[in-house]
Amino acid sequence: MNRSELVAAVAAKTGQSAKDVDAVLKGFADVVASELGSSKSAKVSLPGFLTFETGFRNARTARNPQTGAEIQVAATHTAKVSAGSNLKAAAQKNN
Q: Which of 9, 27, 65, 66 is 20 to 30 Å from 34 by CA-CA measure?
């Protein structure tokens, strides 16, 4: 499902206009990105659904798979997304 399909499905489910749903999704994405960018230990949680949080990846040595040469990968902050219990349960219904 892509963004336009998601907007259409949520609009149909809630009775809201697709324009309003799209604005809410954009606002949600902006708020999460702003919160994760504001602090090194930021976390946004929707209990049972998703948790967004920042993480840290240490510097490391990696290999170029084509040449085998070693390269240094710098330390970096990352965004992590974890599924909540309700989302995990919904995924298990498909098995």
A: 9
